[in-house]
Amino acid sequence: MTAQTVAEAPARPARPVRDGVGLGLAVGVSGVAFGAAAVSSGLSAWQACALSLLAFTGASQFALAGVVAAGGSLLAGTAGAILLGSRNTLYGLRLADVLRPRGGRRLLVSLGVIDETTAMTLNQPDPAAGRTAFTATFATLYVTWNLATLAGAIGAGRVGSPDTFGLEVVGPAAFLALIYPRLRAGRTERIVALAGVAIALATTTVLPAGVPVILSAVAALAGALASPAAAGPAPARAAPAGSGPADPSASSAAAGLPEAESSP
To answer: Nearest-CA neighbor of 68 among 30, 36, 35, 37?
Structure first.
C-alpha cells in the first residue's frame, strides 16, 4: 500500500453516541448502590435523590454517605465530599477548550464534568466528536444514575446491604477501561499512573477522604514538568557539495533575498 493510499484511507469512524450511551447505562445502574447506602446510613430518600440531582459525582456521594454511616456529622461528610469532588475542577480546565460552553449553558456543563464524561470526551478524534460524546454520556448517565438512586433509596429496606452487589466498583472499573489505552501510549504515562497510585495508597490511611486523590495529581504535574519540551523546527542542513538546493526559494529566504518569480 502506497503512502498516498494510506493518506486517502478513511479513518476509523468515531462512535461517540453509541459509546457514551453504553457507558452511561453501565455506570448509571450503580446508583442503586448509592441510594441504598445513603438510606442505610441515615439519610432520607429525598436527601439521597437531592444529592444525585445536584451533586452528581458518585465518589463524593459515597464518601458523604460513608461519613454519616460512621457517625460523623453531615457537615463533615459534606466537606469531605466537596474536597473529593474538587478534582472535577481540573477536568473542567482541560475540557474548556473542547466544549466551549457559553452563557447559562456553563452551569449545566459544569454539572456534567465528571470522570466518565471527561474520559469519553478526551478519547475522541476531534472536538466535534468530543462534544457529542460528552452530551451523550452526560445525558444517559445523569438520567440512569438518578432513576437508579431513587430505586435504591425506596428499596433500601428490601435489598439488604448494598455491599453485597458490588455495584460501587462499576464506575471506577469503567473509568480504568477508558484510560487504559493512554497508559499504553508511552513510558511517561505509565510512570505517572504508577506514581499516582503509590501516592494515593501511601496517604489513604493517614489523611481524610478525598485528600489522597487530590495529592495523586502531583504525579501528573511532575510528569508534565519532566517531559521534554516540544522540539522546535529543525535547522536547515547544508546541501552536499556539487549539488544545488532542493528548493531555490528556501535558499533565497535563508539569505534574506526576495524570492525570484518563476517563468510561465
So the answer is: 37
pLDDT tens-digit map of 172-220:
666 666 666 667 767 777 788 788 888 878 887 887 666 777 777 777 7
Domain boundaries, the chain: 14-167, 184-226
Rounded-to-integer distance, Cα 134 and Cα 139, Å: 8
pTM reported for the whole predicted model:
0.66
Listed residue (132, 146, 111) closest to 27, CA to CA: 146
Phi-psi region of 128 (alpha: psi -120 to 50; beta: other; left: phi over 0): alpha
- For the stretch 45-103, pLDDT in tens is 999 999 999 999 888 888 888 888 878 788 888 888 888 888 888 899 989 999 999 88
Nearest to 51 by CA among 35, 30, 73: 35
**Nearest-CA neighbor of 52 among 66, 64, 67?**
64
Residue 129 in 3-state DSSP? helix
How many other β-carbons are positioned within 10 Å of the β-carbon of residue 47? 16
Nearest to 208 by CA among 72, 30, 46, 98: 72
* Grid cell for residue 117: 464524561
Q: Distance between CA 90 and CA 99 in Å, rounded?
A: 14
Could you give the CA distance from residue 68 to residue 77 in angstroms, rounded to a whole number? 6
